[in-house]
Amino acid sequence: MKKLRMVVLIIILIVIIIAFFGYFFVLSPSFVAKANISKTPLISSAEIDNSHINWILNEVGAYKLHSNMYFSGEPAVIESVITDQNKVFTTTINNNVPSTISGPAVNPDLRFTMTAINFARLYATSDILSNAQKMRKSGEINIEILKEVSALATKGYKSIYDSLPS
Q: Residue 62 is part of which domain span?
């Protein structure tokens, strides 16, 4: 009887450890250092480029994202569209560092859509998360979810969602 209790206790302990690891390292990464990305001056909304997109996504928490390491190995990919300039950017997160290139994404997880003026306003603000939330609610920023919620969760998107002000 004591052996059975010990086995059950060990199994429960293993389940707790796996759940802890799964939550804090996969679903909502808490122990990730923010990538050091310099803020490039944005003189005019007509000058939006890769470095501006890269910086703003890092500020909202893209550095917490990672590849879907348990199933497909597919990296976290975000597409950003500046509608009035017909500019499209693809940001891929590798080793917790966002990297942005010009051009559409092949298979993005999310798509952010906004005008150049709204991007410039967000870029200039000191409280990006709060202002992004307000702009999303007012329709100035559109966020299109392109993957299943389970796929997003295994890439760490929950950590960004949790950091948004309510």
A: 32-163
Q: How confident is the model at residue 23 (pLDDT cuts 50, 70, 90)?
A: low
Extended beta strands in the chain, E state = 76-82, 87-94, 97-102, 110-114, 141-145
Distance CA 44, CA 109 (A): 29
pLDDT at 166 over 60: no
20 within some domain: no
Q: Residue 70 is which amino acid? A: Y
CATH code of the domain containing 142: 3.30.1050.10
Q: CA–CA distance from 158 to each of 11, 25, 97, 99 (Å)? A: 28, 11, 17, 20
Exposure string of 120-157, with b = 16+ CB inside 10 Å and e = fewer, is bebbeeeebeebbeebeeeebbeeeeebeeebbbbbbb
CA 112 → CA 11, 36, 120, 142, distances in Å?
43, 22, 14, 6
76-82 and 110-114 beta bridge pairing: parallel
